[in-house]
Design a protein that fits this description.
The complex is a heterodimer of chains A (252) and B (326).
Chain A (H helix, E strand, L loop, with lengths): L12 E10 L2 E11 L3 E7 L5 H8 L7 E6 L2 E3 L4 H6 L3 E4 L10 H5 L6 E2 L4 E2 L1 H14 L16 H15 L3 E5 L7 H16 L3 E5 L3 H7 L2 E6 L2 E7 L5 H9 L4
Parallel strand pairs in A: 3-10, 3-11, 6-9, 9-10
Antiparallel strand pairs in A: 1-2, 1-4, 4-5, 7-8, 11-12
Chain B lengths: L4 H4 L3 H29 L7 H26 L7 H19 L2 H24 L5 H19 L5 E2 L3 H9 L1 E2 L2 E2 H19 L1 H11 L1 H6 L4 H27 L1 E2 L7 H11 L11 H20 L4 H24 L2
Antiparallel strand pairs in B: 1-4, 2-3
Helix pairs in contact in B: 2-13, 2-14, 3-8, 3-11, 3-12, 3-13, 4-5, 4-6, 4-11, 5-6, 5-11, 7-11, 8-9, 9-11, 12-13, 12-14, 13-14
The chains are: A alpha/beta (252), B mainly alpha (326).
């Protein structure tokens, strides 16, 4: 659960001098970033800028060649993605990392199912109850925690994915283009949910291609261009044109 | 989020209806076929002995079907089960002949299945070949092994304990075959419905990459379903050897189609993510009943094969119709 109150001043995620080389090619060069509780930081950049390399480093799929990752004030090393998950980094993927033929509650607890008794049988009742409480708290409107996922709309499903990430994250929720596969109305709902997470004190790192979305949602933005960190600044201090200019490297 | 759930799910009611329909096909089919034979074959079909026979005859098919439910649920297929039946039966019979130890014979038969299952699983997970190709190859390989083992000779099984346990035994007034059926169904149902393992099997078949990022060890799950499937086939081999009091390389030859048909008619998806153990039991009983009825109707073996093929085709198309689109 995200129990990060506003009293916590330390950043949830701190990246110091993150550097990643593939052979002789530098994919990310000395990247620094802090994400604090109750804050949405957007990560933007053109294709090939190093965004997805950075996302994979934070989610544990790649190990950085150099640099430090700090989570909740402690320096961490992720061996792989499930190690990162264990240490409290949750990822929301654009392509819905969910199982459609299972009920919502099984998706919520996928890979971490609750069991009961000496035979360790699945505790479906308890999973459904927790799930219902969670979707109610976050006001994600679904027919029931017991509904089969494939009976939900794309927006509802992404809502479930975000609920799951929020439920299990002890630190950071990393969102990799969470609305890329959604229509306009559904995108609005998912954005409202992300904003709600921020208001509840979660730290969100949002990767997005959608500039309007970045301006609607994020508090600060980090710009990558060809592996270089171009800027980290509050969105209040920048404009649409300036942001595009930083991403493309062309003067506006 | 807006509260317009109804508007977001216009097709939900229709979808629920369709899913229910295809889930119950096996029960409807069972009743229809039962009534058909009951009316057309009044003399023998409805006798207690005959109905008992149907269940007993279905035992090896049911046991295999439980293993195959798990394989199909992960979105894989196992074509080698029929050959494993013969290999296991012959291995057990040969060990029994040389050692006279019924338990060693049974273990050897099961072990032969476990080895083939491991081979299938390793080639699917490590070498990353499609299970269709891997098990197509091992189907031939294992059939060859079974032929080689006794150079096409049949091996008699006379050990009393073995024949009791895997053939004609009777426990508390219930034939041992029905006990094996019950054990296989209960264990299969428990594993699939009540254990984390079953949830992981279904998740892997539903969306393997989602399972992977959720921390499920996808390859281990896949390996296990192949070991399980081959071991249920090996147990079926023991049941044949015990019932027929002998083993021959032809055992299990025609079972692959019957088992897969029973499982699919029972409501397990060929594309992964949906598995039905009780459905597979009913599907196996249905297949056994069709077999029984056709024999009673006086059809010869060739005619039986033709009619069975047609019935399976019809049954499978009914049970798959609603599933492909969902």
């Amino acid at each position: 659960m995200t129990t990060l109150g506003t009293a916590t001043v330390a950043p949830v995620l701190k990246l110091v001098g993150i550097h990643k080389k593939f052979g002789g090619v530098v994919a990310v060069n000395r990247f620094d970033l802090e994400v604090r509780p109750g804050e949405i930081v957007a990560l933007v950049g053109d294709n090939g800028a190093g965004k997805s390399t950075l996302v994979k480093i934070i989610s544990g799929l790649y190990q950085p060649s150099d640099g430090e990752i700090w989570l909740n004030g402690e320096q961490v090393n992720f061996r792989d993605a499930s190690d990162a998950r264990k240490q409290g980094v949750e990822v929301v993927y654009q392509d819905l990392a969910l199982v459609p033929d299972q009920p919502v509650y099984m998706n919520m607890f996928l890979g971490r199912e609750l069991t009961k008794g000496p035979l360790k049988t699945l505790d479906r009742k308890r999973m459904a109850k927790h799930t219902q409480e969670l979707v109610d708290t976050l006001e994600v409107r679904i027919p029931s925690a017991k509904a089969t996922l494939s009976d939900l709309s794309g927006g509802q499903r992404q809502g479930v994915a975000i609920c799951r990430a929020t439920h299990w994250a002890s630190g950071l929720v990393l969102m990799d283009e969470p609305t890329a596969a959604l229509g306009v109305a559904e995108t609005a709902k998912v954005e409202a949910l992300i904003a709600k997470l921020r208001d509840r004190g979660a730290a969100v790192l949002l990767v997005s291609h959608n500039m309007d979305q970045v301006f609607r949602l994020a508090d600060r933005v980090a710009v990558l261009r060809r592996g270089q960190q171009v800027a980290v600044k509050p969105l209040a201090d920048t404009t649409h044109n300036e942001l595009v200019a930083m991403i493309t490297g062309l003067a506006s | 989020m807006s509260p317009t759930i109804a508007a977001e799910n216009p097709g939900m009611l229709a979808r629920v209806k369709r899913v229910n329909w295809s889930n119950y096909v096996v029960y409807i089919g069972f009743v229809v076929v039962f009534l058909f034979f009951a009316i057309t074959q009044t003399q023998y079909f409805l006798t207690g002995t005959n109905l008992f026979n149907i269940v007993i005859q279905a035992a090896p098919i049911t046991v295999m079907a439980i293993g195959v439910v798990f394989v199909l649920s992960t979105g894989e297929i196992d074509l080698s089960i029929g050959s494993v039946v013969a290999l296991s039966a012959l291995t057990a019979a040969v060990v029994l002949q040389t050692t006279d130890l019924w338990w060693l014979a049974a273990l050897a038969g099961l072990a032969s299945g476990a080895v083939i299952g491991l081979v299938n699983g390793v080639f699917v997970t490590w070498v990353r070949l499609p299970s269709f190709l891997v098990t197509l190859a091992t189907m031939g390989l294992v059939a060859g092994l079974a032929r080689q083992l006794t150079e096409l000779q049949s091996v008699p099984v006379t050990d009393k304990v073995f024949v009791f346990l895997f053939g004609g035994g009777n426990l508390l007034g219930v034939p041992i075959m029905i006990w094996w059926t019950a054990v296989a169904v209960l264990v299969g149902w428990h594993l699939l419905r009540q254990r984390r393992y079953g949830a992981h099997v279904l998740a892997v078949g539903d969306n393997a990459s989602a399972a992977r990022v959720s921390g499920i060890r996808v390859n281990r799950v896949r390996l296990m379903v192949f070991v399980g499937s081959a071991m249920t086939a090996a147990l079926a081999g023991l049941l044949y050897a015990g019932r027929l009091q002998g083993a021959r390389y032809t055992l299990g030859e025609s079972d692959l189609m019957t088992v897969i048909a029973a499982v699919i008619v029972g409501g397990t998806s060929m594309f992964g993510g949906k598995g039905a153990v009780i459905g597979a039991l009913i599907g196996s009983l249905l297949m056994s009943m069709i077999n029984n009825g056709l024999i009673l109707a006086g059809l010869n073996v060739s005619q039986q094969m033709i009619v069975r093929g047609i019935i399976i085709l019809v049954a499978v198309s009914f049970s798959l119709r609603g599933k492909k689109s969902s």
